[in-house]
Design brief:
Helices cover 76% and strands 4% of the residues. It is mainly alpha-helical.
């Protein structure tokens, strides 16, 4: 036990290394599986080549951005005592690691898709094994990289700025170490935003083009080999839902742990780890969650064709949550002191200020449980609103019978309604975790929720792999039973994708609140007073930003989709023999359209998230910036839930028609009028659920992290030497009495020189 106490700081990155080793083993297993016949491998090659072409184009642009941002960060780090030019190195490592996380997921997904198709020729159980193992490569890889990166950099910065200087755990030295470490999170979130927005624009431009021309106008299946946009559509599943989601949750994972560490620095803790137990705890929980998620992947399996794939995935998810809760209890009791703890900002004159909270190790554990419960409930609620056979989706199906407009109306209503229960759960989670352990409780609750990221992301990445497998089966003309098996996986994948986005937005809300609390502490303010006009104005401006951000994303999809539609129509018109299978469509031209559009259109939304906090912070100060962050967080969470859930419900309503649905006693199938209405709804929902909706959680976290990075520069505690010169004003007043005598009253008004 003493050995663990002395070396715990090194054990954390070691758990990350273990996760990466397991990822490599699983990746090798997937690669060894049968990839099918030559035609299947050729189609899979088109998808892989298109995905890599996009990533290379995106990386080129992001390389320029990262270099410029690093130079600016290096300069800014020299301006205040609690930062350093080394923050630029931290930023570049975070950006590289985030991009690497996305690449790992996309690389394995483009290998697992065709192998899942081939496995589906054998059995549903084998197809699930291949697709989920492929998904777990990304899930475990992302969590492993995050734990390794954060753990290793913390060791370096802790030794540089605290140990080597003889600094205090709760003092400026540790604040400097964590401020520099925040650069890692900024790099991760910056790349995640561009990857998510760019990938979302790519995939939806291709999807909308394939749907509107292929399915609606030409009357051929979505993944028909004759559809020129079908390869771009399948590429989009990888660059948006795999690479984008991988970078997204990598950023969330890192930001959550970092926010908890920053708040942990403010806790006065008499422990066996030199007072840094509250700082190490979130990293330890993340590492343990990674290991336990690896264990839980063994529970995801079925044996018969009639077994429920959803139940198998739920078994793995529930196992990871329960195991994490159990192990967290022992970790918290072992690390934290037995007596009461408190945050240093809450202690005034030797006593806790009014409203402050003193808490124990058990209170911290209860907060972790709250986070796990919130994450679970958010996933269950999202599943209810987006899953086939549930009331919300059935209501959209029913209203599809009266046309396209009523389908749209119903989907919008479902999306808006779906925000109620999650917000109530989230509010209860915030209140409960704060009740137990203050803002540290809120942050550790988010860390507890994110501890199962490896499992959550494995389940999420399984969906696009299954979707691609179905596309390859359709394009290859495989027997109906193969497509039935891939459709089974794909339908479950749609629900898991929606629940993954619900999980991501919930974690973003808690993480942003923790980052917000950290920002308040670093910036030297103690409250955000909305009674002030400038703060209230900032609140309203913040509430507006998710709307303009969404508008830019959706408009970008619309413009790119128009180009795609025109290109697909041109090929049907000008290349004779496509519909008769006598000529091959020019897939590469559709891939190029999506690639160019996504790279071009992702820049402005990304710039908003990065630049707005800087402008507001330096122009109006930390309190107004705090108001802005509050508005962005509330509005962004609601917009993210609304758009993701509406899009997911529209998607599964459309898929329900492929199996046949009963409306008022009559059965309707594909190509029926209600089905066409559902395709329209799904087309509207595509940019909702795969572009703007899931980007909301990155938007609110990135703006919070940028604010945290600039907090030392705009802090009310920073010493600015400002001299105000005030001239002496002498006013002479003459008065004359009745006898003609004159008197002079001299009034001198002076003000001392002000130094601030």
């Amino acid at each position: 036990m003493e050995f663990l106490q002395n070396n715990l700081i090194y054990l954390i990155p070691a758990m990350g290394v273990f996760g990466i080793l397991i990822m490599a083993i699983k990746s090798a297993w997937v690669t060894k599986q049968d990839a099918g016949d030559e035609n299947m491998q050729r189609l899979s090659g088109y998808i892989a080549d298109g995905a890599m072409a996009f990533l290379k184009a995106e990386w080129k642009v992001l390389g320029y951005f990262s270099a410029i941002a690093a130079i600016l960060l290096a300069y800014s780090g020299t301006l205040v005592e609690t930062s350093s030019w080394v923050i630029a190195i931290s930023f570049l490592i975070g950006a590289f690691t985030s991009a690497l996380a996305g690449y790992i997921g996309m690389n394995i997904a483009t290998k697992a898709n065709v192998r899942t198709t081939q496995a589906a020729r054998t059995s549903l159980a084998k197809a699930l094994q291949v697709s989920f193992t492929g998904g777990s490569v990304m899930g475990i890889g992302v969590a492993g990289l995050a734990v390794l990166g954060l753990g290793s950099l913390f060791i370096v910065f802790y030794n540089m700025y605290v140990i080597n200087t003889g600094g205090s755990v709760n003092g400026k030295e540790m604040e400097k170490a964590l401020e520099v470490l925040a650069g890692f999170s900024l790099g991760a979130e910056s790349i995640a935003l561009f990857a998510r927005v760019g990938g979302g624009i790519y995939t939806k431009a291709a999807d909308v083009g394939a749907d509107l021309v292929g399915k609606v106008e030409a009357g051929i299946p979505e993944d028909d080999v004759r559809n020129p946009a079908t390869i771009a559509d399948n590429v989009g599943d990888n660059v948006g839902d795999v690479a984008g989601m991988g970078a997204d949750l990598f950023g969330s994972y890192v930001a959550t742990i970092l926010a908890t560490m920053i708040l942990g620095r403010e806790i006065v803790s008499i422990d066996n780890f030199g007072g840094i137990a509250p700082i190490l705890l979130p990293m330890l929980i993340a590492g343990l969650g990674l290991i336990l998620s690896i264990v839980a992947t063994a529970f995801v399996r079925i044996s018969k064709e009639t077994d429920s794939v959803q139940n198998a995935l739920n078994m793995g998810n529930w196992s990871s949550i329960i195991l994490t809760a159990i192990v967290s209890f022992f970790a918290v009791k072992w690390m934290l002191p037995t007596g009461e703890m408190y945050m240093s900002r809450d202690m005034v004159g030797g006593v806790l200020r009014d409203g402050a909270i003193a808490f124990t190790s058990m209170d911290v554990f209860y907060s972790i449980v709250v986070g796990l419960v919130v994450g679970t409930l958010m996933s269950l609620i999202t599943e209810y609103y987006t899953a086939m056979g549930q009331r919300p989706v059935l209501s959209i199906i029913k209203q599809s019978s009266t046309g396209h407009a009523t389908n749209i109306i119903s989907g919008l209503a479902v999306g808006m309604e779906s925000t109620v229960a999650p917000i109530l759960v989230l509010a209860a989670g915030i209140y409960g975790s704060f009740y137990f352990a203050g803002f540290y409780g809120v942050a550790i609750a988010a860390a507890g929720m994110m501890a199962t990221t490896a499992m959550q992301l494995s389940i999420d990445a399984f969906g696009p792999i299954a979707d691609n497998a179905g596309g390859i089966a359709e394009m290859s003309g495989l027997p109906p039973e193969v497509r039935d098996r891939t459709d089974n996986l794909d339908a479950v994948g749609n629900t898991t994708a929606a629940t993954g986005k619900g999980f991501a937005i919930a974690s973003a809300a808690l993480t942003s609140l923790a980052l917000f609390a950290a920002f308040v502490g670093v910036s030297g303010i103690d409250r955000i007073d909305i009674y002030k006009a400038d703060v209230l104005a900032g609140l309203f401006v913040g509430g507006m930003i998710p709307f303009i951000f969404s508008a830019l994303c959706i408009s970008a999809v619309g413009r790119a989709a128009m180009d795609m539609v025109n290109e697909v129509r041109r090929q049907f018109r000008e290349i004779p023999g496509i519909m008769e299978y006598e000529a091959k469509p020019e897939y590469e031209k559709c891939v190029a359209i999506s690639t160019k559009a996504s790279i071009r259109e992702m820049m402005l939304p990304g710039a908003i998230a990065l630049i707005v906090p800087i402008i507001i912070g330096f122009s109006f100060g930390p309190e107004v910036l705090g108001g802005l962050l509050a508005g962005v967080t509330v509005s962004g969470v609601l917009m993210g839930m609304f758009q993701s859930n509406a899009g997911g419900a529209w998607d599964n309503a459309k898929k329900s028609f492929e199996k046949g649905v009963e409306i008022d006693g009559e059965m309707y199938y594909k190509k029926s009028e209600p089905h066409k209405a559902s395709v329209t709804g799904d087309t509207v929902g595509d940019p909702f659920k795969d572009t703007s909706g899931p980007s909301m959680n990155i938007l609110i976290k990135l703006m919070s992290i940028v604010s945290l990075i600039i907090a030392p520069h705009i802090s009310e505690g920073v010493s600015h030497k400002v001299t105000v010169e005030v001239k002496k004003e002498i006013k002479v007043i003459k008065t004359e009495d009745q006898a003609g005598n004159t008197s002079i009253d001299t009034i001198v008004n002076t003000t001392d020189t002000i130094k601030r």
